[in-house]
Amino acid sequence: MRESFQSIRDYEVSVVLLFYGRLFETAPDVRALFKINIREQARKLMDTLGMVVDALDRFEALRPVLEELGRRHVSYGVQPQHYQLLCSALVWAMGQALSVEFDRETKAAWSELLSAVSSVMLEGAAQQASTGN
Ligand code: HEM
Q1: Which distant-in-sequence residues (6+ apart) come within 8 Å of 64 by Cβ?
Q2: In the chain, how many domains are there?
Q3: Residue from 74, 79, 84 nearest 29 by CA
Q4: What are phi and psi for residue 40, nearest 5 degrees?
Q5: What is the structure's pLDDT at 38?
């Protein structure tokens, strides 16, 4: 994971361009949710993934941070079904940018990690929904 993330960071500009292109192509309605510039947004997304990769051995310790991030996403207008779209677009973009370096095993590991991150964010989002107003 760490090795591939280093490569992802090396190819970050390509990954990010491919990723947002793919995301907005598969889900045009999410484009309007992004208010700040995509470059800045991309850096924040990558920094968060970097934090997750650094803390892989203690994923549970990230839970509060990710739940809180998920709660903020509710206010950005992000809906649960968007997570799957984001994960697919991101894994696709990593595969395109890293090519042979992004083998089947690496791809599976990233899909699993992104899905775990999404689950925790969605749990945070659901708490917001049930405790809000
Ligand atoms: C793996 C899951 C995700 C991670 C790690 C992530 C990470 C981030 C981070 C770090 C920010 C910066 C603001 C903050 O910290 O609150 C952010 C903002 C945002 N994210 Fe995500 N995100 C994820 C999923 C999604 C999904 C599925 C969508 C919708 C397609 C989305 C749309 C947005 C939007 C619209 C903003 C606000 C940008 C703005 O104000 O222009 N994110 N995200």
Answers
A1: none
A2: 1
A3: 79
A4: -65, -45
A5: 86
How does 34-51 read in b/e, with b if 16+ C-beta sit within 10 Å? eeeeeeeebeebbebbee
DSSP 64: H
Q: What is the pLDDT of residues 10-38, one digit of tens each?
A: 999 999 999 999 999 999 999 999 987 88
User: Whose Cα sits closest to atom 6 in ligand 1?
Assistant: 45
Ligand 1 centroid to residue 52 C-alpha, Å:
15
Q: What is the pTM of this model?
A: 0.94
Which residue segment(s) compose the domain that 86 sits in? 2-131
Q: Which atom of ligand 1 is nearest to the CA of 30?
A: 30
pLDDT at 131: 59
Residues of the chain with pLDDT under 50: 133
Q: Which CATH number is 89's domain given?
A: 1.10.490.10
